[in-house]
Specification:
Layout: E1 4-10, E2 19-25, E3 29-32, E4 41-45, E5 50-53, E6 56-62, E7 65-72, E8 75-80, E9 84-90, E10 108-109, H1 111-114, E11 132-137, H2 146-163, E12 173-175, E13 181-183, E14 201-206, H3 217-232, E15 241-244, H4 256-262
Parallel strand pairs: 10-13, 11-14, 11-15, 12-14
Antiparallel strand pairs: 1-6, 2-5, 2-9, 3-4, 6-7, 7-8, 12-13
Family: Belongs to the N-acetylmuramoyl-L-alanine amidase 2 family.
GO molecular function, one term: zinc ion binding
InterPro entries: Amidase/PGRP_sf, Amidase_domain, PGRP, PGRP_domain_met/bac
Amino acid sequence: MFWYIVVCIGVLKLTSAEHVHCACATGNTPVYREAGRFATLFSVIPAGMCVQYSDALKFVTMGNTSWASLEYAGNSGYADFNLLSLEVWYGACPNRSHAARADNCPRIITRQEWGARLPTHTIGQLPHIPSYVFLHHGAGSFCHSEYECAAKVRSYQDFHIDDRGWWDIGYSFVVGEDGNVYEARGWDEIGAHTYGHNTQGLGISVIGDFRTRAPNSAALNAVTQLIACGVSSGKIQTDYIIQGHCDVVPTECPGRAFLNVIQNWSHYHRPTGSYCPPLSDL
């Protein structure tokens, strides 16, 4: 004989209507028609996928297990609460499942997921497949979690639009030391990252100040995987050239320590007249 206890946990309403409540699967999570493992199984939430729910998540407790009531795949069902992580996100619930990633590509967090504002104007498309990848750093504080890094990307967009007067965040992609890639203008739109060269290449910025230390391995791996993803998907030419921001514009960006890393990458090319420190000084 089972005893049912129905509980309703209220979640405090946040001041911004753009925040959403998400139940994220910590592993492949079965969803049943009714509470209990002997009920009919109708679907499985892949590990890493998050499902949006309303301000109050209902539970049914049977024995030692609490079952959360969710809407998934167009149906109402129940999932073991122990297999879910309750999270609050800005804009939309993330999908961290393996199925959400293309082959050879890192996880790319969409604009909707990190809570991007709409561009202030329509932005033109790149005139051809980019042959350059320009690397940058944010020249500010670091981030090491998805929540922190998403907030940093939003702050970049706010600065570029509100202070610089640009139409959107300037970079093509932003990378955090959490190992994630954040979609900015993306593969196809002309960026505002490398003055005089925006129609020739993509701009990838790593969050942090890399004048005295290099990005961590998670960020460096994400950068190289993103470039490989672009090549394999036809978004970057196969004979592409990597350059630092300072190779073509007088600036310290992307930082001396970061330059010390990328100068050893096979596609890096130091142009005549580069503004970067001499290679012998790195």
